[in-house]
Amino acid sequence: MKFSINKSEFLNALNVVAKGASSRSTLPVLAGVKITARSASLVLETTDLDRSIRCVVAALVEDEGMCVIPQKLLSDIVKNLPDAAITVDVDDSEATVSCDKTSFTLHTLIPDDFPSFPEVNIDNQITVPFKQFSSAVKKVAKAASKDQSRAVLTGVLLRTTPEGMSIVATDSYRLAVCNLKFDSAGEEFEALVTSSFVLEVASLPEVQETIDICLSANQVMFRFGDTVMVNRRIEGKYPAYEKLIAGSYTTKTCYTTSALITAVKRVGLMSSAASPIKFDINEATKNTVLSTNSQEIGTASEVVSCEVNGENVEIALNHQYIIDGLSSISTDHVFFETQGSMKPGVFRSGEGEDFLYLLMPVRLA
């Protein structure tokens, strides 16, 4: 087996499949990348048995064949080679990687030990605008739980709506929802996908306008250009998150997004998990006083101008959660709604974006 390939194209393909390789498995072959050289292209594959990634890239193939090379080592080598054509020559149990005046000889793994790429029997499929999808996932996924004992909450929910798709995540303390608008052709579709995996999909280089999302009984597959990514679906019933979102409010405020997030960051320097940031919203003064009081550190406060509609209210929220939510809002203005000091607080993006970020309040001592 022998092929030559442009360095940047090879490195890009290796970076795409890198997340599929396992560094902790007891099976050494799962730490490798399987490379199949055929015709005028390479097929790169990795898997950790839960997720599998395949990427096809153009190459000059002199001799067709197949090999498995340790993924991280190969990526590190390619990354540090000169910007020139790379030649890989595989003979028996060794692969020689050469570029310009540099050469490496690596021990390969046994291709027959590498698992076959999963076949997905597609039951449902939907095509989604990639730029919208990518942006929404990056906004929402940070609200997913990292507690593996609550597997359902570690996922991101993808669900079609009459207008397009809702992308949802919650860890039970906060909830993020981003609604996409596009022609979904009435396709019924719902999948719960591991947050880390769907973030990897969202981080793919933008090579085309749309991405295909395909479902089988227990798998989800993303097809994007020359890349295919497959992962097991998370089993279980997702919480009825819509019940948390109130249809009305007693207080609604409007802030300049940049001014609010800057103020929260400043006041948050004195905040901790035990000392959240309090929003003291006053309709008469059209101001919100942000404040925190830490017995160990001290106090801080800042006045932020706002438009207020409704009742005066004091509500305390986790400052890091606030920053996570506000940093996902790209509109100039952000709205905040609540029904009272011990009811959830809801941040909504301004015109042109349909993003909602709900926080459970913190009880003040």
UniProtKB/TrEMBL annotation:
Q: Which SMART domains match?
A: POL3Bc
Q: Which Gene Ontology terms cover its molecular function?
A: 3'-5' exonuclease activity; DNA binding; DNA-directed DNA polymerase activity
Domain DNA polymerase III beta sliding clamp C-terminal per the UniProt entry, residue ranges = 249-363
Keywords recorded for this protein, A-Z: Cytoplasm, DNA replication, DNA-binding, DNA-directed DNA polymerase, Nucleotidyltransferase, Transferase
Q: Where in the cell is it found?
A: Cytoplasm
A GO BP entry: DNA strand elongation involved in DNA replication
One protein family per Pfam: DNA_pol3_beta
Per the record, the major location class is: cytoplasm
Do you know which InterPro entries this protein is assigned to?
DNA_clamp_sf, DNA_polIII_beta, DNA_polIII_beta_C, DNA_polIII_beta_cen, DNA_polIII_beta_N
Give the UniProt family note: Belongs to the beta sliding clamp family.
Q: What interactions and quaternary structure are annotated?
A: Forms a ring-shaped head-to-tail homodimer around DNA.
This one is known as Beta sliding clamp
Instruction: Give the source lineage, highest ranks first.
Output: Bacteria, Bacillati, Actinomycetota, Coriobacteriia, Eggerthellales
